[in-house]
Amino acid sequence: MLSVLFLGARMRAIQLTQGETEKYKLPQPWVQMAMFSTIYAVLAQVILVLIIPVFTGEFTEHADEHGDIDMSKVQIGGMGAMVLTAIRYIIMLALYGGFTVVIVGVFMMEGPKEIWGDEELPVSPAVMNTILLATTFFTVYLLVALTKTAVELSGDSPFLRKLSGLLTLARYTVNFAPMLAILFIGARMRALQIDPKHGNPQRWAQMCFYACTASVILQTLLVIIMPFCVQCECKQGVSEGDVVFEMEHATVAIVFTAIRYLALLALYAGFTAVIVSVFLISHPTDVSKTPPISPAMQCVMNLTLQYFTIYLVLFVAVTAEQFTGAAWLHSVIAICEGAQKTVMFAPMLAILFVGTRMRALQLTKAKDGTIPTADFAAAMRRTMQL
Question: Is it the case that residue 77 has pLDDT exceeding 70?
Answer without folding.
Answer: no
